[in-house]
Amino acid sequence: MRRVAQEAPLTDPAAGAGDRARAGAATSAPAGLRTETRGSALHLELSGEWRAAAVARLGRELDALPLGGVAALVVHTAGAGTIDLAGGWLLHRLEARARAAGATLDWVDGRPEPVRLVESHLGAEGEPEAVAEAARAAAPKPMPVAALGREVVARAFEMRRGLEFIGETNERLLAAVLQPRLWRPISIARHVYDTGITAIPIVSLIAFLISVIIAYMGAQQLLKFGADIFVVDLVTVGVLREMGVLLTAIIVAGRSGSAFAAEIGAMRLNEEIDALKAVGVNPLDVLVIPRTVGLVISLPLLTVIADAVGLAGGALLCKALLDMPLVQYLQRMDEAIAPTTFWVGLIKAPVFAMLIAASGVYRGMQVRGSSRELGRLTTVAVVQSIFLVILADALFAVLFMELDV
After folding, report:
1. What is the share, in percent, of the chain residues with pLDDT greater than 90?
2. Inter-residue contact 261 to 378 (CB < 8 Å)
3. d(CA 244, CA 203)
4. Which run of H or of E encompasses 73?
5. Which residue in 7, 135, 227, 280 is a FRET match for 126, CA 20 to 30 A apart?
């Protein structure tokens, strides 16, 4: 065949071209796969050209593979020709099905580069939702103990990734302290405005209403014993130590924590973060640190405002309900608070701010794939930040009790 192909142009150019086309077709075998079961392992041998033209047929063959009860899936790619992005997407989807079925996957000849490229854009779980649902439905249901173990391992890996993110953020913060040129004062000022100044109305309203509720409920009970003067103690200590900073942090978590996750998540979907990396800019420097520093500055200031408005609300209710003069209210308030009462509440604010900012930006950085994932992780960021704030407040209460503060 090779000799005819070389001599054909001398006699019949058209015939030579046809022979060369048939020879090229003979060397480009159609894509296919062959399976073999060896014990609890399923061996899959790829052959031919895994290109876009064969995606429909290969997808049906891969979907028909019986992965239920398979402990290991071994893939041989030595016999395959070219694997383009379409073929890489099919193999990436096969990986997701194997993980959903609880099987380990081993690439004997190395993981193809198109599969890595597809995963870098879609993520490890980036297959279409219909395929994921079908894989989960076809997978055998794990035993309760196995399911619990997998959930524990998944949570452990999630905690590890969160700690890694916190470590990287702290490293960049330390670098910014040592190198002042890394600070972005304009960006920090904008986030102080967004998270602090624009939140003053809602924080003031909530603090006023909560202090009025506390004073009203306390007065209803203390009037039965003729101890209405202690309503001032209840409002003052409750607002300054706990309610002022806690309610402010919860409001900021729902307002700014969700905004952080949504903004950064939208940037992930629009590939703006990838563009920052492409031009040599660390996303932590321009997205995470300004938001964290801005919130650490604004939350203590909001706490001071909430404390002041809360005390004013308590004074207003005591005047209206108990006919207590403002001078008497101020005198009793001065007697009720200790030197550390105000600072016990204020010292919590920066810690709460860091927890809220870390939850928001971390979940925003995790967004990939679709707008549905953006909404889900934004919700997770808000719930997680509120939970962390309440947990930290409980730990602070135990600490201050042990220190007798």
Report:
1. 40
2. yes
3. 9
4. strand 72-76
5. 280
